[in-house]
Fold each of these.
Amino acid sequence: MRAFLAFFARSALLLTLSVLAFAYLGPASALASDASALQAELLGDARLESQAGSATLNWKAEHTGGPEPTYQLQRSADASFSDPKTLYTGPDQGRYVSGLLDGSYYFRVRARQGDTAWSAWSKPQELVVTHWPESRALSLMGIGALVFLATAFVVLRGTAKTEPS
Amino acid sequence: MINETILPEHTGWLLLALFSVAWILLGRYWGKKASGLDGYMLAGRSVGLALGTATAVATWVTSNTTMLAPQFALEFGIWGMLAYSTASFGLFLFAPMAQRIRQLMPRGYTSGEFVRLRYGRTAYLLFLLISLFYALTWMISMAMAGGTLLEALSGIRYEFGMTVVLGVCVAYTLFGGLYAVIGTDFIQSFIILVGVVVVAIATLSQVDLSQVHAHTQATRPALMHVMFPAAVMAVFNNLLFGLGEIFHSNVWWSRAFAMREGVGKKAYLLGGLLWLPIPIAAGFIALAAPLLDVNIVRPDMVGPVVAGKLLGSVGAIVVFVVVFSSIASSIDSLLAATADLITKDVIQQFFMPKARDAQLEKISSWVIVGLGVVTWLVCLPRVGTLATVLFFAGALVASTIWPIAMGLYSKKTNPRGAALGMLLGSIGGLCAYFLVAWYVAALVGTVISMTCVLLSTWFAPHKFDWATLDPSPPEDDEADTAGLEPQPTGGAE
């Protein structure tokens, strides 16, 4: 009988500890499992092109609860991210990049909720910048200047001729 | 998507409520002066220099000045700032044109009326399409800016902010017509100028210019290049877009008609001078963004976000009030001027030619409400950034520059050439918009239109009688208008 009571008491204690452990660790493990499932991705085509050296990047990470994710955006000159530069860490889900010179730029993003571990990096997005030829830009500027001067001439000469003295 | 705001939502709602009530009450107060069609549509044709200058500045300081000028700086660097400020040339050149308009059409109402009398039906229909499309596009971009701004600054949902801004402008324009518009413009221009000066001084006191230069050079090197191709291409495109906007739009023509004789030229010149430094000041703060490590999600929000970051809650409130004022001052002007255009040039011309002034005044009120509803419906989906929405219209308005300028000064300008210029210029500009980039559309549109107007006038000169522009002068006014008779030998030719 004593042995039975001892067995019963040990079982009850084990059960209580198990319930407490589950109650304490359960949500954390569930959160850990959510965090590991969190995956950020850059939206849009895998390859973007720009002739003005600028683009708007957007990203997101699907999540089913918990705090709003924090994101981290990196840029590199090569697809393997051998020399990454962190551009942004925070809650926004986009960034406007501008003033880039000719070349290819690679971007990737990751996310996390609260203080959990960062998710894996997203697939990289490539931005290819090819500025307009300078000759074309200068030609258009020259034409624009001529058209403006001609317009100003029409208005000012017309005014001089028609204005009542 | 922007997740960080710089003002609590309840502060945003409070500011929105305060200024909404203020604009409506002021509009009601000034609107009491409006009597008759001339009073409602043209503020009794008696606007003086102070109000005239203020309305020119306030109307031209749109949300595009405070939001797009910084975007230009962030996208095109130093060239972008300068490119945006060239829009003041539109006001400078329109100054003498305003005098000419008043001289040729002392009883005129709209820019559409001028095109109809000067060039005939074909050009008139084309012009109406362009003008109405532009007015709606501009108004949509303003209302979108209102919603976007409130959301970025305070987290008020875009749909709610946009609805309130638009609703308030419709309400006070409805109450007081152009009197209310010009009266509120006076207060709004004062707020805008003081606000921009405060933000610019505060920015300069907190950010070191050499650091901004060095940091931008390191992180966004193209912005500091003298030969930044896209920026170089954008300079004259923006200037010509500005000319096209002002030359053709009834917003500016209605003010030319509304100002007292001799006031228009001075008011537009002064307005241009006061406007010129505003986009430079607004653009400068955008260049501080990379140094301050401010994350810019939407390029058209760079100005407000940087100002808020630099100046904290007070700065955010100042920016909020300045941009709300600039948006309201443009939307109300557009509502009034576009309602005039639709009432006089569409409804009266095509459907109710014998309508009396009282009927037209009532119709104009309904048109204002209708315009507000249409704008609201188009704004709801929130498509594109401000620049892409507005620059779509650049190709169209640029094609009107030469038909308008030559039509005002040269008797020989050929009506078919003017119509062809607007048609081919618009088509060519739109092709450039889609095939090349938005920052060449206005330039291409202007070049094609200019070529059409000049060649047609060269090969088939017209003989226009200036008196046609003032068809039915009342007998008792003859003595007053004797000195304003069009010059029979005048013209640029």
Amino acid sequence: MTYLPHTQSERAEMLAFIGVDRTERLFDDVPEPVRFPKLKLPPPASEIEIEREMQALAGANFSAGAEARFLGAGVYHHYRPATVDYVLQRGELYTAYTPYQPEVSQGILQALFEYQSIICRLTAMEVSNAGHYDGATALAEAVLLAFNAADGKRNKILLSPAVHPQYRAVVKTYLRGTRAAVVTGDEDGGATLDHLTSQLDDSTAALVIQNPNFFGQFESVDGLANKVHSTGALLIVVVDPIALGLFRPPGAYGADIAVADGQCLGVAPSFGGPHLGIFATRMAHVRRLSGHIVGETVDLDGHRGYVLTLATREQHIRRAKATSNICTNSTVCALAAATYLATMGRKGLRQVAELCFRNSHYAAAKIAALKGFAVNPHAPQAPFFKELVVRSPQPVAEVNHRLREEFGIIGGYDLGRDYPHLRQHMLIAVTELNPRAAIDHLVETLEQIAK
Amino acid sequence: MKPIRTATDSVQPKAIPTLYELSVRGRCGIDLPAPDVPEAALPASELAADCDLPELSQLDVVRHYLALSQRNFGVDTGFYPLGSCTMKYNPKINEQIARLSGFAESHPLQDAESVQGNLALMFSLQEWLAEIGGFVGVALQPAAGAHGEFTGLLMMRAYHHDRGDAGRIRILIPDSAHGTNPASTTMAGFTAVELPSDTRGNIDLDAVRNACDATVAGIMMTNPNTLGLFEEHIGEVVRLVHACGGLVYGDGANMNALAGIARPGDLGFDVMHFNLHKTFATPHGGGGPGAGPVGVSARLADFLPGPVINIERGEHGLRYVPTTPKKSIGRVSPFFGNFGMFVRAYAYIRRHGADGLRANSEHAVLNANYLRVKLRDTFHVPFDRINMHEFVCQGAVQGTGIRALDVSKRLLDYGFHPPTNYFPLIVPEALMIEPTETESKQTLDTFVAAMHAIAAEAQSDPALVKGAPHNTPVRRLDEVKAARQLLLADRAEAAGG
């Protein structure tokens, strides 16, 4: 049956060796009234039948061509080089457990060490962990780190409303367990960075921004870190790793913690997960960092090797006093990100970022010229990257429905879902996978729908 | 079987250059299309000075990672009896299915109408996990087991607060529990209270009785526990905790013993996380991604994290919709959680059906008991009774100075991944062995032979065992140096091109 190897005679032999007459006797400790429930599950199916059923389910989703997807808002369609999935399919790597036995886990350990190295250079931070679940939970843990760094003496987190709405939601859930936490600043969806910094005081543990922000616009970060640090708080920045191929990294403008979702680095959108949480900070905070960290060392013969280190932060050693409960995280996705960045290299990532920048600006100019539409109406002068806010003459749900059903296009994110003042605004993402022809088609289609 | 004895027998290179050491300025592994839209002025103030990524050809990248993979051990490599981790076979068809573009390319913020396949899949998985665990509601969102624990504890907290019972601040945890239990407890704002085990390996019932009062928010139970034993007084423990107003959390890490055998909900558990990467064979990934859905009893159903997937009967028939429960604790993950893992777990449950899941648990338990009886005369089993899917023996070899760690390292030379060692903490020199159901009798017998051989070597040549491993890519590593002289990122510079 299925993946079980034993023959009937082997089973009988093993039971006899154990000294029980039948398998059921192995479960005598289970209270009789609840033992062996009749589970109501669909009957088992062969691999052929399963494949058919799963293809039908996958086929029940609407699929657009790679060029016709304009939905981003934190999850992106970027090109994934074939090298990435080649690496991810190596059974030695993806069927392994967390590398607690370093002598037979040097592959994963070195790959994670290299991942940490690349993330440090990409973000211009001093130390990176080996990955977190996703960008939102990495941000939540960064906020907890800021609380702990202030020894519980600062109880306020200033959270920009221009941070991804779902990230903010996850932060608030994580803080339910801390008595001290007050999250403030994002009540008014339109609050500016100036409004946020005016609330900095000696009870503030951290100020959190996203740059480029959720709307794709660069925040005015010059001098920001100084303002934050002068009150003793930490600056936490959520970044887009693709943007770092071209634009200045958070370490360059004084961020204390940089977090990001690494899905854009070679990981499939996969309906929102699994993705990768990138989490980097300054060495001053290394002992408060959550998650695994790989360090370089030597073996008995003096040969270079890698181990999980600073384990005294972690749950299996510190238990109730651990910096976090995290154990299983997202190693495969970290592996994907490292392979992606190694394949792209300095030149490739820069080109991807340039293409995203140019294509999104082309789309912005074309859409802005359409009657009834406006692009980035609330911040027309702010530089932007990859995402643009489009005010539409019709409700976004209606526009998206028609884009999909009549033209096979996946439209943008309905910002009215999270920002009441942005009803009839959609967030459109344009990447290197949307060439001129696809953008022209989108623009013509929008024009037609607006008529 | 003759494992290679010394390092010089191996011709493998001792160190593989890092990506940055392989890097040459100006090299690139990819080419991208030339821009076909007009140039746009870059904002000068935002530009980076440089972005220091490694620069390699594609072949360099491929060879590098192939070489790394050859220095790693997975279930696909060999027997991996790592206790409490359920290192079973990961069916290859599930990997193919998860990569179907209809799943892999779907975007979580698409309109619900355009992702009905995904939502149907998630709805079914919720229903099946509820059925397998005996729960009324399931939320798939938590990204891992520990994340599920945190989620469950936040729900317990919200439940007590909702009843105006905010004085419940203590969580009872047996001393045999996984480290994640007390760590999650702290994160959720509770105080962990450790309870001892009794002489038969159960949680000490008197200790539970004495600890139960109006400050108890609940108890976290792993059943079977980390000794691999079914808690003999589970009914009474649940009754005591409920009687004092507390809730019962189940750590589902050991569910591979119970699927189709007993439902935690029927035993009175109020909330439990499932580890899809254990019981339902989604790959461990060298440390993730996993998935840790939580199942709950009726009294916690309103507190589940949202969204969960519901079914609606509309004008065009059935429609699946994401909804957020009334008193939801909120989001614990962005979007829907680790959907790619749900696809694999769905396929796995469909492959097996009810009888297949029960057969898995039976064989997991059969294999573990077979190993216990085979090994117990050589390696002391402190709680020597019928166990579930795993058991704990002591790895020290009397009178030789050989410890559990040495036995573990020597197993590497014989081509096996070692068991979990030094856990649970209540057994000195613990080796926690979980063979899983997908291992054949021949594999188990070969493992037993290796364990016996190592015990003999401990007597005849203890230095050989102390110095193990000998034929792995590296020998024992200096963990103290790693922690004292922190080197957490590569400092190499690319060669000039």
